[in-house]
Specification:
This protein is an all-beta fold and about 140 residues long. Helices cover about 0% and strands about 55% of the residues.
């Protein structure tokens, strides 16, 4: 088990697993590994199949890009990986009180108009958020 670290809502976490048999030899799988993420209360938050990393050039290496959206809450999470012919494996991570499930601000534009000053922010989720009369 490995601790992946601390993340905030809106972050993207790269989940990677090497599918091996009982002796530790990497496996070529006919069905991809399944990743399950459980929150602090052991409630299932995510159940998904993983994709082969690097187009399958590395035998047994699988990846899933996890976006910490609205379905996640602050606290410890357990991540379980399962596959046929070997495994299982697990990781942990902690979601800290910070951020927004809409993602981080990736772009920003300020403009003045006669009626007010405006600021538009582009978020990592693709949303645009507009604010009026920001103080400078």
């Amino acid at each position: 088990m490995m601790d992946l670290g601390r993340f905030k809502l809106g972050d993207t976490v790269d989940l990677t697993v090497m599918a091996t048999d009982a002796s530790g030899t990497p496996l070529v799988l006919t069905n991809p590994p399944v990743v399950k993420v459980y929150d602090l209360n052991s409630t299932l938050v995510l159940n998904a199949s993983m994709a082969a990393l690097d187009g399958g050039t590395v035998v047994g290496l699988y990846h899933y890009q996890l976006s910490l959206g609205a379905e996640f809450q602050e606290g410890a999470c357990t991540i379980d990986y399962t596959w046929t012919g070997g495994g299982p494996a697990s990781d942990t991570m902690t979601i800290i009180p910070s951020g927004s499930f809409d993602g981080a601000i990736t772009s920003m534009y300020f403009f003045r108009r006669p009626q007010a000053n405006f600021i538009i922010q582009g978020l990592g989720s693709g949303k645009l958020v507009m604010g009026k009369n920001p103080a400078f």
